[in-house]
Amino acid sequence: MSNGHFVTPERTDLIPLPKGSELFVLPGRLPVAFDPETSEPLLLEDNPFEPGAPIQAVAAFMAPAHTSILTAAFQTADSAPTLPLFAYTAVGWSKGRFWVAAFRSDPDKRQDSDQFTPSAVDTRTRRKLKQHPDNRLIQHLGKCCLVYGCPAARNYFLGRWEAPIPTSPSCNARCVGCISLQSSGCCPSTQERITFVPSPKEISTMAVEHLDQAPKPIVSFGQGCEGEPLLQADTIAAAIRLIRQETGKGTINLNSNSSLPQALEKLVDAGLDSLRVSLNSAQEHYYTGYYRPNGYAFADVLRSIRLMKSAGRFVSLNYFILPGLSDSAPEFEALCTLVASCRPDMIQLRNLNMDPEWYLRTIGLPRSETAMGMRPWLKALKKEFPTLRFGYFNPFLTTQE
Description:
It is a single chain. This protein is of the alpha/beta class. The chain contains eleven helices and 16 strands. The strands form four sheets. Strands 10-11-12-13-14-15-16 form a seven-stranded parallel beta sheet. Helix 5 links the parallel strand 11 (218-221) and strand 12. Helix 1 (118-131) runs antiparallel to helix 2 (136-146). The longest helix is centred in the N-terminal third of the chain and has 14 residues, at 118-131. The mean pLDDT is 93.
C-alpha cells in the first residue's frame, strides 16, 4: 500500500528479506493480493492453502540500513487493535525465500545482524558493567543492550563505531508514535525511557574511553530510550567540554528534535560536531500533527538547522519515511524548499515506526494525494541536490568533512 491505495510492486522494487529482519502477523487485518491476470486487488478472506483456516495479513520489520518502498497491503476490521510501534513493509514469498519492497539505503554494516555474536555481546557487556558499578549511564546502557537488544548499545559494549548517550527523561514534544513513552491504553512503548539525568562526569567517563579506543568513533546524545536531549543542554555542554579536555578524537553528535536554538547554541559553543534533526514531514501542518510540540514551533527547528550550518557544522535530517506521504508531490516540493533554504548535508532515510493507518488518520493526509514512488522520489532529490548525501546512519566525520 501507499497512502491507503493498493499498488502493484515493480520487480525492481523487491529485494530478498535482509538478514536480521523480523516477520509479523497483523491481527484483525486480512491480506490483499493481486489477481495474476487482471492485476486488480483481491481480498483474501480464506486461507488458500488450508480452506476454512483463519488468515491474517503479514508484514516485515526490516533490519537497519534498509528503507521501505511500499507498506504491507491489508484490510482492517473494525475491531482490530492498533499495531505496535514498528514499521510494516510489504513482504512476499517466491522461489523459496521472502522478498520485501525496499532498498538498502546505507552500505555501512555497523548494525547488520552478522556483526554481532551473542556470546561476545553478553560477555563484554557484563564485564564492563562490573568495571563501572557506580556509573548509572553505563548501567542503563547495559539494560538497553541485554534486555532490548539495542544495536547502538551493543556496539558500545563491543567497543566500536557509534555509542549512544541518553540523558533526558523529559520531552517538549508529545509524538504520537513515541517509542519510549505512550499514554495508558495506547499501544505499548518498545522500550523504557531513562529515569535520571547522568552527570557530566558519568557521561565523559563513558564517552572518552569510547572515542579514544573505538574505530571510527561517534558518541551520540539523543536516543530512543529518552526524551529530548536539548532539555539537558547545560549538562551536555559540560560533558562535551570534559570530553574534549581529555580527547580530540571522534565525532560528538546530537540526535534531536532541534526545538530550542538557544540551547543548541550552548552545545555548538562547547564543541558539538554534528546534529541529526528528526522530521516526519517538511510540511508544518503534518509535522505539528505528529510531534505535537510543547513550547516550540516548526520555525524553531529550521532556525536550529541554520544555526548549526552557520557554525560550519554537519547537519543530517532524520527523515521518517512512509510511502504515500514522503513521496507525495507536495511533500517533495516542501522538502526541496527546506533543503534549498537550510542546506543540510545529509538525509537519513529512516522508516516510520507506527501503524500506517493510525499515522495517516492522525496527520490527516488526503486519500486523493498521489505518490511519485520512492525510487523516483530519491532519484529526483539526487538530481535536484547533487551534493546532498543519503544514508541511514550518523557518519563519522573526518577533518576533511
